[in-house]
Amino acid sequence: MDSNLKEDKPIFQQIAEKVESSILDGSIQEGDRVPSTNEFAKYYQINPATAAKGINQLVDQEILYKKRGIGMFVAEGARKIILQKRKKDFYEDYIVPLKLEAEKLGITVKELSSLITEEDGR
Fold first, then answer.
1. Of 43, 45, 53, 101, which has the fewest Cβ atoms less than 10 A away?
2. Whole-number average pLDDT of the chain
3. What is the DSSP string of 31-96?
């Protein structure tokens, strides 16, 4: 697990994203136990409530589930949920601004598609 936290984003959000990334890259599999909020708090030297906020966010999204007295586990289908969420974010963060800028520059969708295809061939 990457021990670096950035200052430009809320810590709870970074904790949630680190767990998501670990699920996406396969280092944490569906059904695996994830570190507890206290383990996250100790590792990142943060308040356990902050870690819990990030973990509970993933529980609300049905990416993690709680087993009382045992811990937090990765839900079945979690990877698919994360992929859908990140694709939506990618569209909103990159595609929409790209298309708006292309329109300002007079680049058509067809030309934009050609540019992406050309870049892919490099």
1. 45
2. 93
3. TPEEPPHHHHHHHHT--HHHHHHHHHHHHHTTSEEEETTTEEEEPTTHHHHHHHHHHHHHIIIIIH
